[in-house]
C-alpha cells in the first residue's frame, strides 16, 4: 500500500473521525507509530514546535489505545520508510516523499494496514490550546500597535498585517503555546536598536504598555470578531492562514499551522504581562479566560 499525505481535519474543528491505517512502525523505545489516511489530531511541528501535540485515543477493534504523542513524519514512497520528527531528512514538497501525522501509541498493536480505526481528540485540551494560540496572535498585533507611534525613531521596513512596525517579528526568538496561555520571548539587541527602536524608553514604559495592550485586547474580545482558517489544501503540509477582520482597515492574515478559536467571543478576557529578564531579553505572557 502506497502511503498518501495525511488529510488533516483539525482546521475544521473535527474531534473524531473514522480512518484507515496506512502504516505501522515500531517505536524505538516503547509502543508504536500509527499513520492513518486522515486525522483530527494536531501534531507538534518538527521545525517550530511552539504548539503542543493533541491528546486523545485511537480505537482499534474495540480496543482503546492512548495517543501519548503526535508528531510530523515523512515517508519515502519508494521504500516506504518512515522518518519522524528531527529525523526527517527532506523539506516539504520533496518529490517522492509525503508528509504524515504520526500517532505514537503507548503499546504495540497487532492490527494490519487497511484496518479501520476511530480517532478521538481530547476536545477540551485542544480548545484550551486554540485559545492560547489565537491569543498570542492578538497580543502580538496589539503590542506592535501600541509601540508603533511612540517607541520607534525610524521608519522600520518590516510592518505587520495592520501596517504597524513589526516589533514582534523582528524581536521574537521563541514562542510557546500552553493551555489558555501563550509565551513569547523577545531579544532587544543592538540590531533592533539600529533599526529604530527606542529600547530604553520602551523598557521604562512596560507597565503602561501592558495596560494599553490589555485595553486593546478587551475591545477586540468584546466585539467578538469571527476567526477562520484559510487553507490551500487538506494535506498536513498545505499552507494555512489565521484570518480575522479586526475592523482596522484590512483583514489580518497570518501564516499558521496551529489550532485556533473560531470567534473572539470565545474569550471572557485576554490580558498580557511582561517579565523583563534583562535589558536584552523580554518575555510577554498572554493569558486567556474562556467565555
Describe this structure in words.
- With 291 residues, the chain is of the alpha+beta class.
- 22% of the residues lie in helices and 38% in strands.
- It has 5 helices and 16 strands.
- It is elongated and about 65 Å long.
- It starts with 6 loop residues before the first strand and ends with a strand.
- The mean pLDDT is 96.
Primary descriptors:
4-stranded antiparallel β-sheet, 2 domains, 291 residues, 22% helix, Threonyl-tRNA Synthetase, Chain A, domain 2, Elongation Factor Tu (Ef-tu), domain 3, alpha+beta, 38% strand, 6-stranded antiparallel β-barrel
What is the number of helical segments per DSSP (H or I, 4+ residues)? 5
Q: What is the β-strand count?
A: 16
Biggest sheet overview: 6 strands, antiparallel, barrel
Give the helix level as a range of percent.
10-25%
Question: Which spans have pLDDT < 50 for at least 5 consecutive residues?
Answer: none
As a percent range, the share of strand residues is 35-45%
Q: What is the N-to-C succession of helices and strands?
A: EEEEEEEEEHHEEHHHEEEEE
- CATH superfamily descriptor of the largest domain: Threonyl-trna Synthetase, Chain A, domain 2
CATH class wording of the largest domain: Alpha Beta
Going by CATH, the architecture of the largest domain would be: 2-Layer Sandwich
Strand order of the largest sheet: 2-3-8-6-5-9
In CATH, the topology of the largest domain is named Threonyl-tRNA Synthetase, Chain A, domain 2
Amino acid at each position: 500500500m502506497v502511503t498518501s499525505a495525511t488529510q488533516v481535519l483539525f482546521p475544521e474543528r473535527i474531534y473524531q473521525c473514522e480512518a484507515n491505517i496506512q502504516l505501522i512502525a515500531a517505536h524505538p523505545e516503547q509502543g508504536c507509530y500509527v499513520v492513518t489516511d486522515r486525522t483530527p489530531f494536531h501534531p507538534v511541528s518538527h521545525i517550530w514546535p511552539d504548539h503542543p501535540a493533541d491528546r486523545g485515543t485511537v480505537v482499534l477493534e474495540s480496543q482503546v489505545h492512548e495517543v501519548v504523542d503526535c508528531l510530523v513524519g515523512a515517508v519515502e514512497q519508494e521504500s516506504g520508510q518512515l522518518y519522524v520528527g528531527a529525523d526527517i531528512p527532506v523539506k516539504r514538497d520533496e518529490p517522492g516523499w509525503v508528509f504524515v501525522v504520526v500517532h505514537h501509541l503507548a503499546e504495540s498493536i497487532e492490527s494490519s494496514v487497511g484496518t479501520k480505526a476511530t480517532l478521538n481528540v481530547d476536545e477540551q485540551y485542544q480548545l484550551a490550546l486554540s485559545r492560547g494560540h489565537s491569543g498570542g496572535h492578538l497580543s502580538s498585533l496589539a503590542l506592535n500597535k501600541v509601540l508603533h507611534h511612540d517607541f520607534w525613531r525610524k521608519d522600520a521596513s518590516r510592518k505587520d498585517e495592520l501596517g504597524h512596525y513589526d516589533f514582534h517579528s523582528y524581536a521574537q526568538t521563541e514562542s510557546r503555546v500552553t493551555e489558555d496561555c501563550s509565551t513569547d520571548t523577545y531579544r532587544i539587541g543592538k540590531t533592533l536598536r539600529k533599526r529604530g527602536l527606542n529600547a530604553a524608553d520602551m523598557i521604562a514604559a512596560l507597565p503602561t504598555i501592558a495596560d494599553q495592550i490589555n485595553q486593546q485586547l478587551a475591545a477586540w474580545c468584546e466585539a467578538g470578531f469571527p476567526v477562520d482558517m484559510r487553507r490551500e489544501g487538506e494535506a498536513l503540509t498545505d499552507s494555512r492562514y489565521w484570518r480575522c477582520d479586526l475592523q482596522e482597515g484590512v483583514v489580518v492574515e497570518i501564516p499558521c499551522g496551529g489550532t485556533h478559536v473560531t470567534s473572539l467571543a470565545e474569550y471572557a478576557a485576554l490580558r498580557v504581562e511582561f517579565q523583563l529578564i534583562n535589558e536584552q531579553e523580554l518575555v510577554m505572557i498572554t493569558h486567556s479566560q474562556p467565555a
